[in-house]
Design goal:
By secondary structure, the chain is α/β, with parallel strands linked by helices. The chain has 29 helices and 31 strands. The protein has an eight-stranded mixed β-sheet, with helices on both faces. A six-stranded mixed β-sheet has the order 27-26-28-25-29-31, sandwiched between helices. Strands 2-1-3-4-5 form a five-stranded parallel β-sheet, with helices on both faces. Helix 2 links the parallel strand 1 and strand 2.
């Protein structure tokens, strides 16, 4: 198991690692001096002579801790010597000279810590360069913080080295977490979703896990396994871990190790046949940096590996340094058999820049007036190993001066950002032949790029279909140019074991029959045909076998078997629901979704006696009647003065006007109007009537049809209120949905067969049956194809995602099969499969009950017409009102004069008539006769 990374926080004396190191160091203090003296005479004195101060200069002691037995240690020591020589040759006016004291840490953490104690306590160094590895740097950082001696490492890239936030430790290199985003971008570009991280089982290896995990999650990829391999693992342990990786489906591996353990690991991977076609190997920067200088036999085992490393642009200064370095290194160490191993890497560039920065900072502090760069001896010296160390008086000033360094170094701009070097660009390389071939670059602002001056933006890079459009073509392991799909069948399970549920009903979805010829089983059905059609569309062969599984009418048991990997997949009519998706992955659904309600159809041909009123709402009826009378009034007002048909008694005028208006409803009105204004009013009104009549006819037809197709139940709440019985399919998750809808358990019945469905609905709740059956739409559609005319589907009542195929979490088959299913369901092949099992047409559910309100016409629908008509009526009313008033005034005057004349004639003839009728009976009216000419 991988070790836990140390928790962030301030250093504590109670930490086990610190106590253990202190106890070991206490022992080494008494034993190590002779050994350290020998190492100093063999290495330190030779390097110190390089920086021997002149008589007029001030010597400043600087410590250097390296693994001098390694190529990195030897090269870095030479690089530091070259930096000091070049600096003082270019700046002869410097008043200080760095005097190096090199110590060999012998690739051991305790030895490196002992060397640091010796340099600080005995040599009184002002700055320590190193140590070389992250593990060695962890304890040295405590010494640096305790003694205020700045410690600068150019090769401790692990994140664990600075997790304690100790201010006197500086990292003049790029920390490992920087490359996590670059690796994740590479994984995303090729569409890989699952990866395995192989890391060194120590604090250095564990340090990258948080950052690489987060970066992969950001691109929707995940780490499915972490292989922790100790640095000194024997071959058989590495082989066991490699075999475990071979039994997984994932074929994308990210290796985070130091170069030595990584070389051993890839040698075993090559022997196990895992450096062949189909595999993807990605190495992090510590290995990527040294790919050009690894031994030939190691490079042969890493063919096709993709690596990441900080990018350093080739310049004239770099080329000149490489030439001098190669000559000096081969002359000093007699390195002639392998030219590759004499080349410098970016670690040597960083070492060169660090030495330059330290020497410059020492000179700056000395010129600032702190000529006595020394130490303050504590009072309790000798009583405690750590507390007895002296404290540097110039440490804070030296630290500040180093942090302020800003110059163009060999590795680029030398500038500290949050106490480490900021490397904005990584180079992506591919091991081909004897060298690492450049594929492209990655930067935070632009993502993956083939060239640094490319016009691609980050969004464009992310939208690319594949990395081949951005990076140069990769030569993958096995000399393959085909992009690996990132997964393969495990070596121990080449045939997928696919569970098929044994169904006793709805066999048109899944039907399992015994095959007597093979003593096995044969599966068929709609679900089986869709799965096999999807498999045939995959770009690779998929071997599988069907295994019948009787899940006792509960598909949750089937899901559990796939979750525990008893089966590699499950194919059948398995519904996609949220609770199941927590444990397994589903492909894209291949059927329609939703849960609906199956009810008995009510073939009621009877209609209500007032159904003719239902097409129009009350407000529309009222508005229509108002406009009928208003239109008749306006027509009467316009026509009355001069049209004799609109004259006469009041009852005659009223009946003529409004009979004419009503007759326009059936367009049977007579041509009795004469004036132009009346005709304008009638034309506009007839248009309104035309729209109303046509809409009324269509709405009434819909209502009459809906009356005949009305289901017996339209709402689950109606069943709840009336206490009706309901049913569901045996073993279905719909039972939980009914309980969620608050149906009483005693009112829920379990049904198993199609015949039971039909019989229960026909019997009804009052006769031992049910009033409705709740089930998924595919099952109900299958039922309707056989019993269609007597039943109806009402819904959907609840939402589901339909049927899908089941795979374990993270299965790489899911996206490929989902794409294939989408192509099938959208094309003719899906229709042919559906026709094979369900006939020419599969009925769709009637979504919702027949709603008469949806076909009724309201005033809102005709508001525009009535506004136009009302406006026209008002205009005609205003135009003709004065004429109408004048006509009525004239008529009244004529009537008054007529009455006046009539009354005068009666007064002159009144007396003779009275004399002639004196003999009339009382109470009888006088008979007045009027003489005529």
């Amino acid at each position: 198991m991988p070790r836990r990374a140390r928790a962030r926080g301030a250093p504590s004396a109670a930490e086990p690692s610190v106590l253990a190191a202190g106890m070991v160091l206490a022992f080494i203090v008494f034993v190590a001096p002779p050994l350290l003296a020998a190492a100093a005479s063999g290495a330190g004195n030779a390097s110190a002579s390089t920086a021997a101060p002149a008589a007029t200069t001030v010597p400043v002691d600087v410590g250097l801790i390296l693994d001098l037995a390694t190529g990195l240690g030897k090269k870095s020591l030479l690089s530091v010597d070259m930096a000091l020589e070049d600096l003082y040759a270019a700046r002869p006016d410097f008043t200080t000279r760095v005097r190096l004291h090199a110590r060999d840490s012998d690739r051991d953490v305790v030895t490196a810590a002992s060397a640091a104690v010796d340099l600080i306590r005995d040599e009184k160094v002002s700055v320590v360069i190193g140590p070389q590895s992250t593990l060695q740097a962890e304890f040295v950082t405590y010494l640096a913080n305790k003694t205020k001696v700045p410690v600068i490492s150019f090769s401790a890239t692990g994140d664990a080295a600075i997790q304690y936030h100790l201010p006197y430790f500086l990292r003049a290199c790029a920390k490992d977490s920087f490359q996590a985003a670059a690796i994740a971008a590479f994984v995303e570009a090729y569409g890989w979703k699952n990866v395995v991280v192989v890391y060194e089982d120590d604090n250095y290896g564990v340090g990258i896990l948080p950052s690489i995990t987060d970066a992969l999650q950001d691109v929707e990829a995940r780490i499915i396994y972490r292989a922790a391999i100790p640095a000194s693992s024997p071959d058989y342990l590495i082989d066991e871990e490699l075999y475990k990786l071979m039994t997984m489906q994932t074929r994308v591996f990210i290796v985070h190790m130091l170069p030595g353990p990584a070389s051993h690991f890839f040698a075993r991977a090559s022997a196990a046949g895992m450096m062949s076609e189909g595999y993807v190997w990605i190495v992090t920067a510590n290995v990527g940096i040294v790919l050009d200088v690894l031994p030939q036999h190691t490079v042969e085992n890493m063919q096709g590996v993709v690596g990441f490393r900080p990018y350093v642009a080739k310049s004239a200064r770099i080329i000149d340094f490489m030439s001098q370095f190669d000559a000096l290194f081969r002359a000093k160490y007699h390195q002639a058999h392998d030219v590759r191993m004499a080349r410098p890497t970016i670690f040597q560039y960083w070492a060169y820049d660090v030495a330059w920065a330290v020497a410059t900072a020492v000179e700056k502090v000395n010129r600032a007036g702190l000529a006595n760069i020394g130490f303050q001896t504590p009072q309790d010296v000798g009583k405690n190993l750590v507390n007895g160390l002296p404290t540097s008086t110039a440490g804070p000033e030296l630290l500040s001066s180093i942090l302020e360094a800003d110059f163009d170094g060999l590795a680029g701009r030398f500038r500290f950002v949050d106490r480490h070097m900021d490397v904005p660009v990584y180079e992506v390389v591919n091991v081909v032949g004897e060298k690492a071939r450049g594929l492209g670059f990655w930067s935070p602002g632009s993502g993956l790029l083939r060239l640094l001056n490319s016009s691609f933006t980050e969004d464009q890079a992310k939208s690319s279909v594949s990395a081949s459009e951005v990076l140069k073509p990769v030569i993958w392991p096995g000399d393959s140019t085909t992009v690996p799909k990132g997964w393969d069948f495990p070596v121990n399970a080449k045939v997928l074991r696919i569970a098929v549920p044994v169904r006793h009903e709805f066999k048109n979805f899944v039907n399992v029959e015994a095959n007597h010829n093979t003593n096995g089983s044969r599966a068929s059905g709609y679900s089986i045909d869709v799965f096999e059609a999807a498999v045939n569309r995959l770009p690779y062969a998929l071997r599988y076998e069907y295994i019948p599984y009787d899940c006792a009418n509960s598909y949750d048991q089937l899901i559990t078997q796939v979750y525990y990997k008893k089966f590699d997949a499950a194919v059948g009519d398995v519904s996609i629901i949220a609770n199941r998706s927590k444990y397994v992955d589903f492909t894209m659904p291949y059927t329609e979704s939703g849960v609906s309600m199956l009810v008995l159809a009510k073939n009621d041909d009877r209609t209500t006696m007032w159904i003719f009123l239902e097409p129009l709402t009350e407000d529309l009826w009222i508005a229509t009647m108002i406009f009928i009378f208003f239109t008749g009034l306006v027509v009467w007002m316009i026509e009355n003065p001069k049209n004799e048909r609109f004259q006469g008694s009041k009852w005659k005028q009223f009946s003529t006007s409004f009979y004419f208006t009503f007759s326009t409803l059936t367009f049977s009105h007579d041509q009795i109007i004469e004036k132009l204004h009346s005709k304008v009013v009638v034309v506009i009104w007839c248009f309104v009537v035309l729209v109303l009549v046509q809409s009324y006819t269509a709405s009434l037809s819909s209502l009459l049809t809906a009356q005949r197709l009305q289901p017996s139940v339209t709402d689950p709440r109606q069943l709840l209120r009336n206490g009706h019985y309901v049913g569901y399919q045996n073993g279905s998750f719909v039972h939980a949905m009914l309980r969620r809808l608050q149906f009483d358990e005693r009112k829920i019945k379990v049904l198993s067969t199609l015949e039971e469905y039909a019989q229960a609905l026909k019997a009804g709740s009052k006769h031992g049956g049910v009033s409705a059956i709740f089930d998924e739409n595919p099952y109900l559609n299958s039922f309707i194809t056989q019993y269609g005319k007597d039943f109806q589907i009402v819904g959907p009542i609840d939402r589901t995602d339909g049927f899908g195929f089941v795979f374990p979490r993270g299965s790489p088959l899911v996206p490929d099969l989902s794409k294939a299913i989408l192509n099938i369901t959208e094309g003719c092949e899906g229709f042919q499969i559906q026709k094979k099992w369900f006939g020419d047409a599969t009925p769709s559910p009637e979504y919702g009950s027949p709603d008469t309100d949806s076909v009724r016409l309201s005033l809102q629908s005709f508001k525009g017409l009535f506004i136009v008509n009302g406006f026209a009526l008002c205009v005609m009313l205003v135009i003709n009102l004065p004429e109408f008033i004048r006509a009525k005034s004239t008529e009244l005057r004529n009537l008054s004069l007529q009455r006046a004349n009539s009354s005068g004639e009666i007064a002159s003839d009144n007396e003779p008539q009275q004399l002639q009728n004196n003999n009339a009976a009382p109470g009888e009216p006088l008979q007045i006769e009027r003489e005529t000419d």
